[in-house]
Each structure stands twice: as structure tokens, then as C-alpha cells.
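Recall that a protein's primary structure is simply its ordered list of amino acids. Everything else, from secondary elements to tertiary packing, is in principle encoded there. The following example makes that idea concrete.
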Amino acid sequence: MSPCHLRVGRWRHTEESSNSASAGKSCVPASASCASFYVTIGSWLLSLYVFPAMTMQFISHRFPDYHDPTIEDAYKTQVRIDDEPAYLDILDTAGQAEFTAMRDQYMRGGEGFIICYSITDRQSFQEASEFKELIYRVRHTYNIPLVLVGNKIDLQEFRQVSRDEGMHLAQEYSCPFFETSAALHFYIDDVFHELVREIRRREKSLPQAEGKSKSKDSLWQKLKGSLKKKRESPS
């Protein structure tokens, strides 16, 4: 069977959490994230310190001590999921304004989305609850692979969103749900692997002609190029 080629993007929500600061943790954005695989994880979706952190834990099994929100990062990795290879191209837009401006195009190019919020930040959960409608407005279909993630379960003492609330939202979205800790690498791999499975299920349910799109590949590369060009240009 041919490899499953995925791209990942992210929706970010910048989280200013006094609780996190008092706990000795860096204030980080919560991610509501978006994916081709989009880890779209922001207010503008999917995720900022937490979500680069999720990606770094998945790719290299390490938690970053620092994240520069002005830097766009791209990651590529190959993994085996259910005995099938999957190639992941992950773009971390770091909440740049250009990402917001290109949001609709970015969503059109995504094959799947990780919608991520912080369990210590109710605002990020409220934004996550609106994200599916945002995808529908752009894609005109609810048949999009999604995974809902509540991050920061290592900070239970600051929890503002219950597990039951997350499960209820996942039921509304008809998608898998995980609570994770990017800091402790709890269930991070499970999230990415399950999104790949969701994308594969959708691809198998579509006519073969819709399975892969050169236009989506072109759009994805164009978005990455635009963000990289902006990053390298003098301020």
C-alpha cells in the first residue's frame, strides 16, 4: 500500500495564564488547532507554546525550554501507524499575522485538524468549540478528519475545563478526544496517530479521484513559502 502523505498546520490561541505563571510555567498559547494534517492548532487556532511543544514532543521526544513566537518552523518526519508508513509535513506558523490573513486558504489545503485547547484556560475551550463551524464555512462540509485535544493535564490544580466538557464537545464533533500533557509527553503520539487514522478513513470513503489533489499540494507549498519569505525579510 502506498504511503499516506500528510501535511500538518496549526491554529493557535495565545494563552496569558496567571495561574501558569504562578505555577512556575511559561505562559503559552493554547491551541485549537487546524491540519493536511493540520495541527491547526489558535486564536488564531491550534496552539502558542503548547503546540510547538506538542510537535516537538512528537517529532523528537523533547520539551522546548523556549519558543520564539515570531519564528515559523517546519518539521518533516516519517512514522509507521498500523503497519503503514505515513510522511508528515508539519508547519508551525507561530501565530504570525500572515497566517490569519491566509487562514481560509490554509484550511482549504488541510486534510485533517487537531483542535487543541488548554484545560487551564476556558477561553481557549470556547474558541475550540467554534472551530468546526469555521472549518465548515471554508470547506462547506462537516466530513473533515478532526481530533479534539485538551492539553496541560499536568496542571490539574489549575483546571478550568472538565474532562466531561471535553468529551461532550467531542461527541458534538463526532471525533476522537484526548487529554494530554506536552510537558510530560502524555498521549502526544496517540493524538497524531489517531488523526492519521481519521484521514485514512476519510480517504477510503471518497471516490479515488478525490483522494489526492495536486492543487492542495501546490497551495500547501505556497503557504509555506510565503511564511518563510516573510520570516527572512528585514523588519
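The two ends are 47 Å apart (CA to CA). The chain is about 40% helix and 20% strand.
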